[in-house]
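Final report, closing paragraph on structural work. Over the funding period we assembled a curated collection of sequence-structure pairs, and we close with a single example.
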Amino acid sequence: MDFETQINGNFLEYLDSAHLYLVDGVIVPSITQVLKVKFGRKYEMVDKQTLDAAAQAGTAVHEAIQRYCEDGEYTDIPEVKNFRFLQKQYKFSVIKNEVPVILYRDEEPIAAGRLDLVLELNGVRGLADIKRTSTLDKEYLAYQLNLYRIAYQQCYGEKIEFLKGIHLRGETRKFPSIPINEEFAWKLVDEYENAQSD
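Its predicted structure, as stored:
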């Protein structure tokens, strides 16, 4: 779905049909594209039909969880049921869903994206990403969530004190902690920028 919003005095647009982010009319890479410099070959052995089906199922789960969080609409699919279980078990509340962010370096927009969830747990704020993969790639998640954390703090001036994965697939329900590490997130940005200039 297309969207547009103002963040930090910048105009962020997302064009879904082209999977493009623009900041003030200039195309910037998505945070997912930045991650591809390290993880680009992750699914190259999987055929396109399987990947497309997995992407559709993942989108359906994200949308169902968003409707549940925002409107209280309950869908009786295992992933939503297990999301509710995790929420009760770990006592977290969802503050925001699908939050647009811009990643800046030296005050220049260098990437953009949308993070899944801003949570509150024990009185502090954190970020979480929902994954529906058969196995949870914690390394990928660590880079992804650390980039989102930097961008979110830059955009909204709110301290993020924890990062979590939410792994939901059928009856799988996990809520692992992900370490905060800004340094390695910036190193990945350097790798991406170096690869673009080669």
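Helices lie at 31-39, 48-71, 78-90, 138-156, 182-197. The longest helix spans residues 48-71. We thank the funder for supporting this effort.
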